[in-house]
Each structure stands twice: as C-alpha cells, then as structure tokens.
UniProtKB/TrEMBL annotation, chains A, B:
This is Sulfate transporter 31. One of its GO terms (cellular component) is membrane. It is a multi-pass membrane protein. The keyword Protein transport does not apply. It comes from the Eukaryota. GO terms for molecular function: secondary active sulfate transmembrane transporter activity; symporter activity. It comes from Hibiscus trionum. InterPro entries: S04_transporter_CS, SLC26A/SulP_dom, SLC26A/SulP_fam, STAS_dom, STAS_dom_sf. Residues 504-627 form the STAS domain. The lineage of its organism: Eukaryota, Viridiplantae, Streptophyta, Embryophyta, Tracheophyta. Its main location: membrane. Pfam families: STAS, Sulfate_transp. It is found in: Membrane. The chain crosses the membrane at residues 68-88, 125-145, 157-177, 183-202, 234-255, 261-283, 322-344, 356-378, 390-408, 414-434, 446-471. Keywords: Membrane, Sulfate transport, Symport, Transmembrane, Transmembrane helix, Transport.
Length: 650, 650
C-alpha cells in the first residue's frame, strides 16, 4: 500500500538520512554537555586572541579587571565594609554551629573570598560560611569523632571534608556535570532549607538556655528531650540576654525588609549585638554567672593546614561522604543565589564555571585552615543592596577580616555565646520560606508534597534522610511520568482542520468512524506495555460507545505521534503488536506526524512497509481527510476486511 | 494585552476548570494502577452476577472449566504427556544446577502446575523450574550456607527464598505494581539471559569433565581457573559420554527448529537421553569408572515443608534478597512468555493476575518441598506446538510426574550426571538469542549497549551485578531524556500553514523575524535550567545568523508547547525568567498549543496575564499569522520597545 487506498498524500514524511554512529554520538554529547556552546567566542579568532580568551574564560578576573574604574571601587568599598561587619560575627557564630574553634570561622572569611574574586563569574556573590553546611559538618563528622573529646582530630576531619567538597565541586565543573545540581529541585531545596533552619534554631536552645551538655542528634525528638530533660540546668541570665538580642535583631530585620534602603540596619545589627553583648558581659562580669563567653582568640592570619588533611584517617570515608553532601548543598545554594542576582542585573552565569570557582576556593581553603564556604543568600543580598559593582567587594571584605585577625581578636574575649545563638537564629529564620511553600501548594501539589517530605525528613529524621527522601520522590515523579504517559482522544475544533484533546477543548467534536489518539511521552520499555493496554482500552471503549449510541462503527485508528520525541526497540515492538491487534479487529492504523527519530526506527525495523507508507501523514488533519475519503468513496473495498474481522472475533 | 496588538485570536485556548484535588488524585491513581479497567465487566450487573464474576476474576478456572469439552481434553492429554517427558529430566537437571537433591526438582513439577491451572490466565504456559533462577539460588544462597557441608540448612533456605519470592509476586499483583516488571526492558532481558546461559554452560563443565571440586563463583575468570587448574582430574569417560549426548540433543533441536511439526523429537530427546544414558551406565558399570550417577531417589509424593521455612535463620535476609531477585526474574520471564503466546492465539493476559497466580503457586510450592517455578519459554513452546488447548495440559503433566514420583524413581538410579549437564547445556543454548542482539544493534544502538552491559556484567561479574548495571543504564536513559530534552527550530512547510522541525523537513522555510522553537519533553526541575540556557542559545544564534545574512532582525519568539505534557513549579519559573529575558532583548514571546496541565499552571501562577492572553495561540500557524500581522501593520508600535531594548543592552 503506497497510498491509503487511492488517496494521494499531500505531504510526505521523510525518513531522515542515517548518520554515522560516531557523528550522531558527537552531536548528542555536545548537546548534553555543552548546551551553552562555550566555544562560540573562539570561532574565527587568531591563535593569540584564542589564548587570551581561554585564560579569561578560566580566570574571569582577567576579563573584567582591565575595565575596572575608581568609580566602581567606591561602591565596592562601601559594600565590602558592610558585608565584613556581617562576616565577622557570622563567621564566629557558624563556626560554633560546626563545633569548631571560632577563629576558623574568621579564617574562612579571609582566603576563600580572595580566590573566588579571581575565578568567580558572578558580580554580586558574597562568599562566606553557610549555616546549614556548618550544622551538617558537625552532625555528620561528630558521629565518628567527638569535637569536645578529640578536637584536633575533629578539626582535621573538617578540613579533609572541605578538601573533598572542593575536589567534587571542581570536578563537576570540569567534567561539565553541573546538571546534576539541577536534580535538587526548587521544592526540595525549599523544604530542605526550611527543615535545616528549624533544627538549627532548635540547636540554639543550647546556647540560649546556657546548657553545657547537649545531644549530638539533630532530630526534633532528641533535641526536645535533651532540652526538657535538664530543666533544672537552664540559666535565666543567658535566656534573658539571648531573648533581648534576638528581639533586637528581628526588629532590625523587620525594618530592613520594609525598606530596601535601610539594608544597613540589618547588616550592622549583628556586629552591634556582638559589641553590646561583649560590653554588657565585661561590665557586669556575667561570665561568672552562667553566661558562657568565647574566650581567648589567637591573633594572626590563617596558618597553613595542608599537613592536617587526614587522608590516612580511619574516618576518611565519613569525611568524603560529608564532603560530597556538603559540597553539593553548597553548590546548589551558591549557584541558585548567583543566578538570582545575575537575573536582576541581566548578565549570565555559567554554572560549570561557578563550580570550578567554588571548588578552587574550597580546595585552597582546606589548605589554609578554612572550612567549607559558599555563597549564602543573606550576605549576597546585603552585598547587592549595598551597591556592590563587582567581586572587589569580596576583596574588601577579606581585607577587613584580615585586619580583624591581625589586631582585633582580643576584643571578642567577652562576647557571650548567647549573642552568637541569637545571630544564628535571626539569620536562619529567613530560610523558612513560607511564601514559597504557599506558592508550591497553589501551583503544583506534587511539588508541595516533595517539599513537605524534605522538611519532615530533616526535622524528624536527619538532614541526610530528608535530602534523600526528597530526591527520591522527585525522581519518582519523572519515572512515573515516563511509565504512565497520558493518552488523549482528539476531536475536531469546529470550522478548522485542527484536532485537539477533547478533554481540554470542550468544543471539539468526534469524527465519525475514526478514533484519534495522542501519546504524550516517548515510548520506552518502561511504558510500552502500559501504552499497549491503554490504547486497546481506548479502542474498545470507543467501540462500546459507538455501539450503544448506534453510530457508525469504528474503522480507523489514528495515532498522533507529535509528542513522541523518542522511541526504543520495546516501543517499536509495541507499535508492531498494536498494528497486528488493530488489523485483527478489522481496523486500519494510521500515524500522524512521526518525529525524525521515530521515522528512522520505523524505517530500520521495516515497520513503515508493514503499516504502509500511505498511512503515515504529516498532520492529523490530513490523516482524517484520507480516512474520510476512504470511508465515503471506497466502502466496498472494506467489506472483505470486515468479513475477516468477524472471523477472528468468533 | 488581551489580544496581540490588534490581532484578534481566532481560537481561544481554554484554562481547564480546576478539579478538586481528591478527584484529580483519584483519576490519576486509576490511570496509574488500573489502566486496563478491570472493573468494566462489573458495571450494571446484578449483585449475584457480580459475585460470580468476582470469583471468576480471581480464580479463572471457574470461568473456563464449564466450557471445557472432551475434544479439548484429547489435545491437552497429548500436550501434557509431551511436556511431562521434558519436565522429568529437566526437573532433575535444574535441581542439580540449584545444588539441591534431584527429587526436589521432580516435586516442583507436581504441585505448582496444579495451583497455576487454577489461578493462571494464560492458556499455554507450561509451569516448571527455570535454569537461570536455579543457578541464581545456588550462587546467592551458596555464599552463606554450603550445599554440600550443610545440605539440610541449605534446602531450608531454598524453601524460604521460594516463599518470599511467592509472597513478593503475589503482593506485586495484589497491589497492582506489575508495571515494575516493565522496567526490565527487552534489551536487558536478552543480555541478562544470554549472560546467564553462558555461565550456566560454563558451570556444566564440572559435570562434563567429571570434576568433583568446583568453584562457587559464577564469573568467567573463576570458572576457567577452576576448570584449567585441575586438568589432571578431567575424566575422559565422562567427557565422551557428555559430548555424545550433547551432540544428539543439539541434532534433535536442529531438526525441530527446521520443522514445527517435528517438535516432539526435541521434546522427547531429553527423556531418551536419560533412558539411554542410564542403560549405558547400567550395562557398562561406568559408575565405577568415574561417571557420576544420581543414585537413590526416594519414592513418594512431596512431603510438607512448612516447618522447614527458616524464618528465624540468621541468613533470613539473604533468603529474602534471593527471593526478591529470583521472584522478579521468574515473573519477568513468565509474563513475557505468557504474553508472547497469548498474542499468537489472540487473547489477553492480565499481568497483575498472572503475578498473583505465580505468587500463589510459589507460596504453595514452598510449603510442599518445591523450589521456585515459573513459565520457562522452552517448555511453553513445546506445549504450544503439541497443540495444548488449556491449562489442563499442566494438570496432565502434574499427574504424569506424580506417577513417576510414586513408581518410577528407582529407574533414575543409574542416570549419569553428565547426561543432565548435556540436557542443561542444550536447553540454555536457546537463551543465547543472537538474532535479537542483531535486531537491537540495527534499530537502537543504545539498547544494544544496555544488552551488552547486562551480558558482560553477568559473565564477568555476577548475575546481580549484570542485572543492576543493565537496570541502571536503562534508567539513566529515561533520566537523560528528561534532563536533556530536544529543542528544535520549526519552519514553514511551503504552501501550508504547517510548521515542522527544519532538521527533519529540509523543505521547511524560516519565517522572517520570527523564531519558532519546539520543546520535546515535560518541563521539570531536572531540565528547567538546561532549557533556559538552550533557548537563550537558540535566540542568540538566530540573531547572529540574521545579522550576518543581513535579514530582518528577530522580533518574535514562539514556543510550541505541543509536546510539553506536564510542567512543575521549576518549569513555570523557567518560563517566567525566559519571558523576562526575551522582553529585555526587546522581543515578544508567544506560546502555541499549551496543553491542559500547562494552561492550568500558567493560570495559577498568573503567568498568563504576564505573557498576555492574546499571545497564547491554539496553533503555531495562528501565532505566526498574528506576529506577521503585527510586523507588517503595526511597525510603529514596536519602536518604543526596541528603544528600551537598546537601553538595557548597554
């Protein structure tokens, strides 16, 4: 059958010429790993220029530094000092969250920002330590080595984990596997961050209540048991001081939120709290009445820590695992933050390049007594609002931190831990993004449940459990989409040759004697059997409907393959079986708009000839015209077929 | 913007009315778990009839037994005796493969076929033990308990594993999770079975060469080392006998393959070999010259084995794991075989019902000294060719095996093990399906590599490794499809309002000033960033092309969403960002044919209003008409927009 029984097809669906396997592999690899075509700018350039462009590609500072002006510097200086005033108290606070000496938190705000300023491609990102990652470090590493019992070994593990996090980040970037980060969906991140913020706040009850012993577990039940199990040890001095500062910090946050120009109130509040708190303790000698203070901080810059990387430790696997998880979370947050602010200023961020920058900064950090850093949202927002123009603001911040390390550390001696707790709480409360949760609920219930699963997993189980639950549920959705694709019956939109889903378009009408089905996903092994069953059901349901309505019996089944972008061998067998089934019922199968890959495989499996070239159409409209033509002019030719059909139905 | 700048849309894309969440959940659950609508026949029936139909649904024998005739029985009798002659030697052989006493192999051909005859929905399936599953049992359970050192405990573990396999199979059926079996793609099964056949053959070198000690590992390297490490222990008597019988069996197989009517030659050959082999040994007393024989077999029917189920064994987890893996493989083969033969006779097999039948038969089997049974392809093919009409042939086979158990077991005393090895080899050689491999290579290279990975994994690693590699690679393909969906530029097919991919249709032409992009997959978190980057690249590539060709500059970007069946919140944000980007470049975004779910979410997120209702079209053709209308009649209105664009590009 070259043509459908006398009907001459108006358009031909071509079989694509077969490409050599290597060529098509190359094309798909390029599409998969270089969707942004980074080599574009190198085309048709002299070799010297290519070299320069290559250097600029890997070290973006070379690209923008020559264009840097004094005008920009003034803006960056203000922004840099602003974020430094945030970086110092946050660095100390988050270090306590990671159960490491506070000085390491300061070290971590010195070297990494300098490295990022060289390699980063964002203009607004403010580098620093991250609350969630800090907590994750302490909860994962604290399980194998006690931070209080064996502080030296614990700190070594922290550096080692940081090293592996950096290594992972850099490798992901170099291997262009950045898309792996995309598998952490927005819903997952919202739920996960919310859960992490909740447990971080709960952990701060230790500092707020002045407790000395506290559980190492992070789940709700353990923490509450730990808090209420030692009511008699609560210290009211600590609690009062903490609540005052928390109230102060939340108040400043509230004002800053109402007016963007008041961002500096929020930015300066932590440092103000630290200074006020230290003064209060110094003057009242509260450290002798149950208010714990930081104590001595060593003066001086970051000591090298290459020899502390514990590659031979028996806990190396734990360090690697911690590095992988914290590294990915750091990346996910950092890249999302970078992209958000890049959108405001309309420039582009290259995810893979960012990963390399993050990786370099953490590898360098792990060798200079820093722990894991990323691009926290809060600090970046302050940087942005303070009017930063480039990464020079990070350099200014690093310089300010350096000066602090060299001269000002003794001033933190009397800083009460409870102020640090208040700072942490007020910072992570911003991670409880209830508006995003409402948005998820409104738009996509499934995403909402993913988010909820992540939140509950983190709060009731552990950070790792929450993360793995959320990722599995998200993946399940993708798998389910492919395993159970939708099929829809199409009908004619009146006064047109257009065919659309009858569910969606209530005005669409059935075409007598013809069933038009649309398949909404690639046909793969995972859904081939399902589709066969579902399509059979559509056919007998339509036959039943026509019979009970006393209409023309079914003669043609048209499959609209517009949305079938891909097919595998199981899919091809499914089509073959379907054709046989349809044939046996005395019906004729027609295909509409098969895509290039489907045509290629139909051709290779000789299925085109079995279906008949004339039964493959460019559009559903044409397929219907052909079927109608046959129905009305060639009724006699179908008698034999129907006779056969009756035979096989007996 | 209600209409696109003066252009009146011809068709409206409706926003589907929002359904209550529970209602839509119910619909999707029904689609996911009951695609074949099994309740259809119950509709509008009186209660009594409903009960009868329900019983018949769960116990299909009630449905077909009343219609059974003597005419059918004659056919089934012949088929039943034929498969019994295959079942007895195969039962004994496969039991040796599973390292259990040969009598259990016979037991397993008695009870399970009777149970399956009641619950099964296939008419042609011949129940029996399976080579691959037998080997898997011995390789997995043999690792924790030695079959020779502690035979009693080993057999208990085998029964326990069988019990859990049955439990899993029945639960999958009852929970309607049958689709999980579909995740074993055809390519995976071909590679896996080929690999298993290879290692089963290699294992038989033990029997063929009369070796007493042999490795428990199944991989190529270990087996070859074991074989060539003890060359001095090879027994030529055994080898000669084995090769003769193997030659005989392969010869009969060759003849049967050439002519379907000669199927009985192949079916009778194993029994003939057993009889001949036993006679030779009995007459020559070869058992005293290095030819190992079966020895004593107990007379009598299956003893109960409920008390042997070792639920308190320390190796319970291994038994459960073995049960899960063997159960799934048994199911996958059994259902595929059932479906294949059902297609020949044009009846339908309900996968979930089959699973319940398999489960019942294995649970019952594990309580009556049987090990795992399924529906092997070879035996079913013989049954089919012998003209079976119903599952009564299984009952006949079971009766014949019963008679053997009661009276004929002593006859197997002198049966040489080497004959069993020949029977196994000739049976599993049929699993090396090189034609299917060539088919895979021709049609889908990716499927071919999946198949190869499964084969190499099994042969070089272990059965479990092969299986998990193949499944992961298959899943990776699905994930990659979703993570890296194709996008294509559409062009106009001359003399029509049809737009198709310019790659596929070389006759398609660009539309001046308009870029039409098609997205080929649902937009999910896993691909949202990729799509944003890829679409941006399409836009700047088109702008470059137009600039260098000196054509009309780009004004409109039309997204054809026909193939976007689903979208999540990340996808919605992606569209929102894309709209902003396009806007910033001074271009206008239009959407064509958004599907019902996309429209719903566009509406809920207020994105419809942001894009403008007038910029959402039913077809690409109409979108292009609207853009052209604007381009030619309203040029002046765009000047302002372009001006803005220049500003923001600076």
């Amino acid at each position: 059958m070259e043509t459908a029984g006398g009907y001459e097809n108006q358009y031909r669906v071509p079989v694509p010429p077969s490409k050599p396997f290597l060529k098509s592999l190359q094309t798909s690899l390029k599409e998969a790993f270089f969707p942004d075509d980074p080599f574009r700018q190198f085309k048709n350039q002299p070799t010297r220029r290519k070299l320069l462009l290559g250097l600029q590609y890997f070290i973006p500072v070379l690209e923008w530094a020559p264009r840097y002006t004094f005008h920009f510097f003034k803006a960056d200086l203000i922004a840099g000092i602003t974020i430094a005033s945030l970086a110092v108290p946050q660095g100390i606070s988050y270090a306590s969250l990671a159960s490491i000496p506070p000085i390491i938190g300061l070290y971590s705000s010195f070297v990494p920002p300098l490295i990022y300023a060289m390699f980063g491609s964002s203009r607004d990102l403010a580098v620093g330590t991250v609350a969630v990652v800090s907590l994750l470090m302490s909860s994962m590493l604290g399980k194998v080595v006690s931070p209080t019992g064996n502080p030296k070994q614990y700190v070594q593990l922290v550096f080692t984990a940081t090293f592996f996090a950096g290594l992972l980040q850099a490798s992901l970037g170099i291997l262009r596997l950045g898309f792996l980060v995309d598998f952490l969906s927005h819903a997952t991140i919202v739920g996960f961050m919310g859960g992490a913020a909740t447990i971080v706040c709960l952990q701060q009850l230790k500092g707020m209540l002045g407790l000395v012993h506290f559980t190492r577990e992070t789940d709700l039940v353990s923490v509450l048991r730990s808090v209420f199990g030692q009511i008699h040890k609560w210290r009211w001095e600590s609690a009062v001081l903490g609540c005052c500062f928390l109230f102060f910090l939340l108040l400043t946050r509230y004002f800053s939120k109402r007016k963007a120009a008041l961002f500096w109130i929020n930015a300066m509040a932590p440092l103000t709290s630290v200074i006020l708190g230290s003064l209060v303790v110094y003057l009242t000698h509260a450290e002798k009445h149950g208010v714990q203070v930081i104590g001595n901080l060593k003066k001086g810059l970051n000591p090298p820590s290459v020899s502390d990387l514990a590659f031979r430790s028996p806990h190396l696997m734990t360090a690697i695992k911690t590095g992988i998880i914290t590294g990915i979370i750091g990346l996910a947050e950092g890249i999302a933050v970078g992209r958000t602010f890049a959108m405001f200023k309309n420039y582009h961020i290259d995810g893979n390049k960012e990963m390399i920058a993050f990786g370099m900064m953490n590898i360098a950090g792990s060798c200079t007594s820093c722990y894991l850093t990323a691009g926290p949202f809060s600090r970046t927002a302050v940087n942005f609002n303070a009017g930063s123009r480039s990464l020079v603001s990070n350099i200014v911040m690093a310089t300010a931190v350096m000066l602090t390390l060299l001269f000002l550390t003794p001033l933190f001696h009397y800083t009460p831990l409870v102020v640090l707790s208040s700072i942490i709480i007020s910072a992570v409360l911003g991670l409880l993004d209830y508006e995003a949760v409402i948005h998820l609920w409104k738009i996509d219930k499934f995403d909402f449940y993913v988010c909820l699963a992540a939140y509950l997993g983190v709060v009731l189980g552990s950070i790792e459990i929450g993360l793995s639950i959320a990722i599995s549920v998200s993946m399940l959705r993708i798998i389910l989409f492919v395993a159970r694709p939708r099929t829809a019956v199409l009908g004619n939109i009146p006064n047109s040759g257009i065919y659309r889903s009858m569910d969606q378009y209530t005005i669409a009408n059935n075409v007598p004697g013809i069933l038009i089905l649309q398949i909404d996903a690639p046909v793969y092994f995972a859904n081939a059997s399902y589709l066969r069953e579902r399509i059979s059901r559509w056919i007998y349901e339509e036959e039943d409907r026509l019979k009970s309505a006393g209409e023309t019996s079914l003669q043609y089944v048209i499959l609209d393959l517009s949305a079938v972008a891909s097919i595998d061998t199981s899919g091809i067998s499914m089509l073959e079986q379907l054709m046989k089934n349809v044939d046996r019922k005395g019906l004729q199968l027609a295909l509409a708009n098969p895509r290039s890959e489907v045509m290629k495989k139909l051709d290779k499996s000789n299925l085109i000839d079995k279906i008949g070239k004339g039964w493959i159409f460019l559009t559903v409209g044409e397929a219907v015209s052909a079927c109608n033509f046959m129905l009305h002019t060639c009724k006699s030719t179908r008698v034999a077929v129907e006779h056969n059909a009756q035979d096989s139905n007996v």
